[in-house]
Design a protein that fits this description.
The protein is an all-alpha fold and 140 residues long. It is 81% helix and 0% strand. It has 4 helices and no strands. Helix 1 (2-28) packs across helix 2 (36-56), helix 1 crosses helix 4 (96-136) and helix 3 (64-88) crosses helix 4 (96-136). The longest helix is centred in the last third of the chain and has 41 residues, at 96-136. The mean pLDDT is 84.
């Protein structure tokens, strides 16, 4: 059950990040409308990249070096997955500029999802600590 809840949580963070990045790109490109297919593409990308995330994101008990390696491998794998999908969906061209743009976009989604995860995780930790202090006093 924990794996499913992690998958759903990361799917929401990642898909929201992809939606934000796409919204920024479409706005900067001057697009006034988008097709319904764009939303299905975003959901599909979120679903596929969530699998990569659930497998490769460092766990709490991973050491510092192992975590850095997993973060780097995770980012590289996300780029390897998203570059072909970006080409397939006509979001980027198969050129050095297109590949670099997708790598930057992956970085933007990575930052947005990680930041959301941090904020929510921090708030949950504060609530847990508050509950423990209420139940057991200040000794906790």
């Amino acid at each position: 059950m924990k794996i499913l809840s992690n998958f759903v949580k990361w799917f929401l963070y990642i898909t929201t990040g992809i939606l934000i990045v796409c919204g920024i790109h479409y706005t900067l490109a001057g697009a006034e409308t988008v097709t319904v297919a764009v939303f299905w593409k975003i959901l599909f990308c979120g679903f596929v990249t969530t699998f990569v995330t659930v497998v490769l994101v460092p766990k709490e008990n991973d050491g510092r070096t192992k975590s850095y390696i997993k973060f780097a491998l995770h980012y590289i794998m996300l780029c390897i997955v998203m570059i072909p999908m970006g080409i397939w969906f006509d979001w980027i061209s198969f050129s050095p500029g297109g590949v670099i743009a997708m790598m930057a976009d992956v970085g933007g989604v990575y930052f947005a999802a990680g930041f959301a995860y941090y904020l929510i995780d921090r708030r949950q930790a504060e609530e847990i600590n508050k509950g423990l202090k209420e139940k057991y006093g200040e000794d906790v």
